[in-house]
Amino acid sequence: MSREEQRSARARGPRRRVSFIGVFGEVLITAGVMVLLFIAWQNVFNSWYLNGKQDSAAAQLGKQWLEQSEGSGTSSGSGGGAQTAVGPNAAIPVEKTAPAYLGAVGVIYVPRFGTDWKRTIREGTDTPVLNSTSAGVGHYQNTAMPGAVGNFAVAAHDTGYGNTFLHIQNLRVGDKVYVQTQDGFYTYVFRNYVYVQPNAVQALQPVPMKNGQKASDRILTMTTCNPPYHSVERLVAYSVLESFSKTPPAAIAGAVG
Question: Which CATH superfamily hosts domain 42-252?
């Protein structure tokens, strides 16, 4: 090697050795960034997108059912109307059978979640329902239908896929929850929470947490994972039917149609 080549080699300095630890560290950093990006996409961007789609689908279905009711002459406008209070002899319409899997059960409105908050309830509680653009809330199969004696039970994600029940813990005793079907509007009143294990199917019984007892109340059960971003347990919110109306209650008149 000439003197000139030796001087050039010294100027460049020693070649950097690539170590396994260095490569592994870079891989971990890249993987960590990818995980953070996925979490951001899942809980922010994807949920924002699905939130809009689910709201739009519920608005469309609610409007369609309301127009059908008005067209048949069974409704006289929105903003309230004659209500049938719950009682032993109350003539409250109830669908006898649930729709086929993925079929529309109703539209749920929860003013506590937002003035215009609404979601479509579809039959089933698995991925095609809870993660879809056209639902967000699923009806537990083999539980009661809206307005019926027993336990009308539904489920939704707390975080991700629209963040549907993210604010369920904000419900307060006396809050109203409304369920619209083709028959009209059922008004439920929030009563209490319970925290249960993920496999606690007793929460879905006709008389929640009571084996074999005959139901007399008309209950709405809303379930989601708890705490947010985890599925360690289930948060269950119970409401009891207060009344039924053919027309939209005043509290949600602006959110329907």
Answer: Sortase (2.40.260.10)
